[in-house]
Every structure is written in structure tokens, then in C-alpha cells.
Amino acid sequence: MEFHLIRFLEYREPLLHHLCTITIYHWDLKTRELAAKALGGLAPLAPEYVISDLLPDIVTATASPFLAVRHGAILSLGMVAKVLGPRLQKDRAISTMILAVPGNIPERYVQDFGASLTLSAVANYIGCLSRAGWDFGESSHGMRHGQFFEYFVQALTTCKEAQEIVPEFTSFVAKYGLSDEQRSV
Questions:
Q1: How far is it, in rounded angstroms, from Cα 132 to Cα 66?
Q2: How confident is the model at residue 136, as a pLDDT?
Q3: How far apart are CA 35 and CA 121, in angstroms?
Q4: Based on C-alpha coordinates, what's the Rg of the chain?
Q5: What CA–CA distance (Å, rounded) separates 176 from 169?
Q6: Exposed / middle / buried, residue 103 (Cβ in 10 Å: 0-12, 13-18, 19+)
Q7: Is the pLDDT of residue 158 over 50?
Q8: Which of 80, 165, 89 has the alpha carbon at shortest distance from 123?
Q9: Which is it for the CA torsion 40, 45, 48, 52, positive or negative?
Q10: Residue 3 has what pLDDT?
Q11: Residues whose CB falls within 8 Å of the CB of residue 2, separated by 6 or more in sequence, listed in order
Q12: Average of per-residue pLDDT across 118-142
């Protein structure tokens, strides 16, 4: 229904606002996942609004102490970064902000209660960046590449649903490759 309504300009921003302030943070896991997918489909219809008004709050929420908020924000950011990648990468400040997200997640959130959910969301986020061909900068085989690889290793060894992470990891490896040291892990 949102796809039909969003064609009308007067509904576009309110629907996106509701999706990004309420639905992506819903208590139900499947609702958050569907909201993130919907945002991926709807963001190209109002990219300026998503980037200027909604994206900063989503990025901030990726480090939320509340698991549902953090999970929904990371999934949603990945979808937005995938569909608006070329536009987002042109702005150095926005690109830096998006690429810094995994490094801004406190360590306890990937080790304590809810770690598997956070790690699966981060794996999805990195997979989205990989599919969109994001440039990790000069550190593509340095710190950022290594950090992303470590998140995959942790996710694959922690998450019960590791088979859902394999396609994300495959996208990452296909785009950026692995160092000899990473191959030995």
C-alpha cells in the first residue's frame, strides 16, 4: 500500500518519516526487517529528504543501547546506502559518517545479550555496501577492510542463523577480496 500512496507528493514525506521514526524501530523483528526493505524501495523516490532529514537520525540510532532500535537502524542504513550509494558517496562527510558506523558500535553490543542480532545486522549492512560497490577508501585492505572482515568472522561464529550471513560475506569477498592472513582464518 505504501508503494501506491508514496507516488503522491503530499504523502511521500510523512510516510517516509513514519517508516524511519517508528516502523524501523518496532519491537517485532520481522516488522523491522520489512520496514528496512520498504525504505530501500522508497528512498529513491525522495532521496534529498531521506539524506537530509532522516539519515542523520538513523546513523545516530545505530549505536543505540536499545537492541530493537540499533538493529532496525543498522538494517535501514544498509538499505539506504545500497540504493542511494552513488549519491551518498559524492558527499565526503556523509560517506565518512556511513562507513564509520561499525566502528561506532560499542564493543559490548557485539559481545553481550543481543550480540547475534546486532552482528547479523552489521553483516547485512556490509553486504549492502559491497553490493553497491562502496569505496572503502585507501584502507580497503587496511583497517576498515580488516574490521569488516572481523565482524563477519564474529557473526558467522556467533549467530544461530549463520546461513543468512553467507550471502553477505560472499558479496564482500567478491567485491574486495581477502588478504592472505584472512584466508587462513
A1: 28
A2: 74
A3: 14
A4: 16
A5: 10
A6: exposed
A7: yes
A8: 165
A9: negative
A10: 58
A11: 15, 19, 38, 42
A12: 80
Residue with cell 532521496: 47
Would you list the DSSP string of 143-171? HHHHHHHHHHHHHHHH-TTGGGTHHHHHH
Give me the phi and psi of 132, to 5 degrees please. -85, -5
- In whole angstroms, give the CA distance from residue 109 to residue 106: 6
Residue 63 DSSP label:
T
Which cell goes with 87? 549519491
CB atoms within 10 A of CB 126: 29
SS3 content of the chain, % helix, strand, coil (to 5): 80, 0, 20
Check pLDDT > 50 for residue 142. Answer: no
How far is the C-alpha of 131 from the C-alpha of 39, rounded, in Å? 17
Residue 104 near residue 74 (C-beta atoms within 8 A): no
Q: How many CA atoms lie within 13 A of 117 on its CB side?
A: 18
